[in-house]
Amino acid sequence: GIDGSFNVITNMSFNQNGENIDSVVVSSPTGTDQTFVNPSASFTVNNLNAGFWTVTAYTSSGCSFSNVVQVQQPPQLEIILNALGQPSCNQMTLWDGSININIVGGTPASGNPPYTTNWYLNDINSPSIDNSLQLISLDPGSYIVIVEDAVGCVVSDTFDIVPPDPIAIDTTVT
Fold this sequence. Notes:
Number of helices: 0
Radius of gyration: 26 Å
Shape: rod-shaped
Order of helices and strands: EEEEEEEEEEEE
Number of strands: 12
């Protein structure tokens, strides 16, 4: 994933003393630069790690204008287990296991749902079986959930639905 990466939108004026901005240099906290030649008035600089970034615009006559932008890292993306319901009896035909999760942190998307969620039964290479936060009527097995936020950070977890022990009847004739 792109853990710790964010978008920064920088609006630059093109008419400082009648000059156009020829280039914009975005300098990372580690000293790596990204240069944008003949940028538009508003553009997006993507995939920035958390920290203080320096944005410097240069005009054709060599004048420069700088600003420091702080990119903050969101809280860690997490899957929270609200409830794990094991099957109530060993029926073999009608199972009632359930899993209920919540997702917190990361960078949620502005739409609904705010995260991409996919559930798999026993194997992530099999087709996804659901994309909700609550699963019901579950057969025994290992349920794997993979969650992705708006900037591509991914977290996963596995929850096991285990059948109860079969009812044993001890019959002793005396």
